[in-house]
């Protein structure tokens, strides 16, 4: 080959190689982002997977930058989750991301009760309520997302099934951060744990009536059963028709309004609650 043409040939060869390499990288990225997501191909017994128990955990070192940019938009991570409560759309993600590292450094397991959020500190435990059917779950937020439209939380496949988001795809939800210290304190003093937790008179508000009982132990059993199904206050209220005739009212509450009470009724019925339910106010 002509000595003069060798540098030109080498330049064009390297240029074409670089273009080809960039096309390959771009193609892989497009394929990865565009690959459809889906549920596990293996059997998952969703009923046996329980809510995580909120507990104090240190912040993830890599999951909590001051801010970060995704798809050209900058997000600012919250210092803490105290008082966080938001309503919006929930979606879910599954096997496309299974066993990949999350933003917090943990591996994503779509068969666990986890979720992704754009700005909550990692990790954060959150109570998620499906406003369309009244179902409630607890998830551990350990990843970032979703970055699509007006969605506020991405649930793992199992969490989405338990909340009724899968197979529909999305649902209107309320996401409320859980203070693990308060949660543990509340668990130690559950409504059926001791005599001190029997209220008289009741705090004012709306209640979902679970039953009225002559015997305290019957009331405690009912309260305990309800508390295992929903993550909301279950109270035992001692009442007197006459001084010699006490009875025990068991109810979920106090609730802010009747709409919230209707969600609770739906959630209990969905989980197999058989006795009649009614809304009363104090």
Notes on the protein architecture:
With 282 residues, the chain is an alpha+beta fold. The protein folds into 2 domains: 137 residues, RlpA-like domain (Barwin-like endoglucanases, Beta Barrel); 93 residues, Sporulation related repeat (Alpha-Beta Plaits), CATH 3.30.70.1070. It contains 5 helices and 13 strands. The protein has a 6-stranded mixed beta barrel with strand order 3-7-4-6-5-8. A 5-stranded mixed sheet has the order 9-11-12-10-13. The longest helix is centred in the first third of the chain and has 30 residues. It is elongated and about 65 Å long. About 10% of the residues have low confidence.
Summarize the structure.
The protein has five helices and 13 strands. The protein is of the alpha+beta class and 282 residues long.
Q: Characteristics of this structure?
A:
282 residues, alpha+beta, Barwin-like endoglucanases, Alpha-Beta Plaits, 6-stranded mixed barrel, 5 helices, 25% helix
Strand neighbour order, sheet with most strands: 3-7-4-6-5-8
Distance between the termini: 97 Å
Give the low-pLDDT segments.
16-34, 189-196
CATH fold node name of the largest domain: Barwin-like endoglucanases
Query: Helicity range of the residues?
Result: 25-40%
Shape: elongated
Number of helices: 5
Number of domains: 2
In round numbers, the mean pLDDT is: 82
**From the alpha-carbon coordinates, what is the Rg to the nearest angstrom?**
26 Å
Strand tally is: 13
**Strand count, sense and closure of the main sheet?**
6 strands, mixed, barrel
Helix-and-strand structural type = alpha+beta
What is the N-to-C succession of helices and strands?
A: HEEEEEEEHEHEEHEEHE
Name of the CATH first level of the largest domain: Mainly Beta
- Tell me the CATH superfamily of the largest domain: RlpA-like domain
